[in-house]
Amino acid sequence: KSKNNGGDSYQFYSAEMNVDSRESLLLEHQLRDALEQKQMLLYYHPQYELKSGQLVGFEALIRWNHPELGLVSPLDFIPMAEESGLIVPIGEWVLYTACKQMKAIQDKWKLPLTMAVNLSPRQFLHPSLVQTVAEVLYRTKLKPCFLELEITESMVMGDIDQSISKMNEFEKMGVSLAIDDFGTGYSSLEYLKKFPITKLKIDQSFVRELGRDDNDSAIVNSVIALGKGLNLRVIAEGIETVEQLDLLRQEGCDEGQGYLFSKPLPVNALSALLDSVLINNPEGLTQMGQKS
Ligand code: C2E
Ligand code: MG
Ligand code: MG
Ligand code: MG
């Protein structure tokens, strides 16, 4: 129906939009108090080295435990947090909570595991990010080499010189950087070689069709080869089937995470996983010493 001959359909749509924007205003208002109300929590997604099958770390993934809606996905509130600027305090909470959790894991299980934390564009561009990260590491006593920050291509392409200098500061500090969702943003190979990063994360959209779609398989294989050429580690996310895992292993992909291994875990499920890792790897303590 067009606006001209359907006056009431126009009203219908505008009424819908009002409800939506009222709802999102309400959510944004509630988001403001969510941290203080302790409604934010982190899930931890295990990451494995594919050759050995060893657990190598976790990615921290935020959820909002909303009093009426239950667990809200980051896809449904991170954009709002980003737009309102709330992502800055939320992101700082994520960094602190994830680092503190990893320090606690290392103290108890003596395993040299890393913690990956997602950054949002606004957080990455914030002038005090480097200082915030330094303070979080100081307060939690986690060694910088165990923290990995996930950034995306589009985040750094805006002001490249400033982004590179920020990345250099992290490198100097000993914090590593991974490019998340690699292949879905503007990729400039020219810049990629200048970025002081250590890892590429192949986006799950390519992994999903691995072995079924020739183009996606070609993209995955190329990213793995690119990583090898640039001396970067490559991790595949979204591994759900044994077939995908086998293909990634064949191509020499270094690491992986996905539902095939585990879903993201709430904090109370970590102990069982880490106990089982330690039983299979009693050398954890010595390895921990080697990495420091
Ligand atoms: P991401 O960083 O690319 O994280 C991977 C997402 O894929 C996670 O969804 C994870 O649960 C999901 N995933 C991993 N393996 C599989 C699999 O095998 N199958 C399927 N179907 N999904 C899998 P999640 O937790 O909903 O997070 C979505 C996005 O929200 C993240 O994408 C990230 O961009 C953002 N995000 C999550 N936590 C944070 C945070 O603390 N800060 C910021 N700025 N963004 C976050
Ligand atoms: Mg990520
Ligand atoms: Mg990703
Ligand atoms: Mg993704």
Automatic annotation (TrEMBL):
It comes from the Bacteria. This is Diguanylate cyclase (GGDEF) domain-containing protein. Residues 24-278 form the EAL domain.
